[in-house]
């Protein structure tokens, strides 16, 4: 997969005017979360949660700092850190996740004869797409709509965790909170010197050189 921002590492901004002390503390805490850290999910649930996260946001195998997506979701649930609202058709988020994980495993078992984490990637996608389309049929879903669980919990929580992590910021050229420096050149196709340069086809070396000095 082509890198859009080659050579860019948002963490190079850590000790520059781009970030203040509050930002540094928040990012340091996220970076300190181990990939396998968990307090909420059980031994039985954890492999399925990790596999689900790996299919929703697959990460490069050679990434030096993988975003600990499953661990970040686990931490959110362990702290009962809620969104401030709830869809009427959904149970509270802790119950929704527990029921959803069990239902995805049951769906995988019924359709393909194995638990979700034991399936090949294409087979895992088949199970997730069935939930996304509202075509999952396992009794384990109960009265929780599979499509709503996929949209309001899986996508919401998995993508929210992923794009809250600096590894994802480097991937998309995001500079972080930019406090106190902020952004100045707001017009179309303009960027501040402390923003990442996107690589144009055939000019990746130019972007890599520019991004090596972004702070």
UniProtKB/TrEMBL annotation:
Stored InterPro entries: Gluconate_2DH_su3
Report the superkingdom from the record: Bacteria
* Ranges of Basic and acidic residues composition bias in the record: 201-215
Q: A Pfam family this protein belongs to?
A: Gluconate_2-dh3
Which taxonomic lineage does the organism of this UniProt entry have?
Answer: Bacteria, Pseudomonadati, Pseudomonadota, Alphaproteobacteria, Hyphomicrobiales
Q: What is this protein called?
A: Gluconate 2-dehydrogenase subunit 3-like protein
Positions of the UniProt region annotated as Disordered: 196-215
């Amino acid at each position: 997969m082509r890198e859009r921002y080659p050579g860019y590492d948002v963490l190079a901004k850590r000790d520059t005017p781009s970030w203040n002390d509050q930002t540094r503390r928040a990012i340091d805490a996220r970076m300190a979360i181990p990939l396998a850290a968990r307090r909420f999910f059980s031994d039985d649930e954890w492999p399925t949660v990790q596999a689900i996260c790996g299919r929703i946001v697959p990460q490069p195998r050679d990434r030096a700092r993988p975003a600990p997506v499953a661990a970040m979701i686990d931490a959110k649930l362990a702290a009962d850190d809620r969104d401030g609202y709830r869809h009427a058709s959904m149970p509270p988020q802790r119950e929704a996740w527990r029921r959803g994980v069990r239902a995805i495993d049951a769906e995988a078992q019924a359709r393909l004869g194995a638990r979700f984490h034991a399936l090949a990637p294409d087979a895992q996608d088949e199970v997730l797409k069935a939930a996304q389309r509202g075509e999952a049929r396992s009794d384990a879903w109960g009265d929780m709509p599979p499509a709503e669980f996929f949209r309001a919990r899986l996508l919401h929580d998995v993508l929210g965790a992923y794009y809250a992590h600096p590894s994802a910021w480097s991937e998309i050229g995001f500079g972080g909170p930019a406090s106190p420096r902020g952004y100045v050149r707001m017009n179309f196709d303009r960027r501040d010197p402390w923003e990442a340069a996107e690589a144009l086809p055939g000019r990746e070396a130019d972007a890599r050189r520019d991004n090596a000095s972004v702070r």
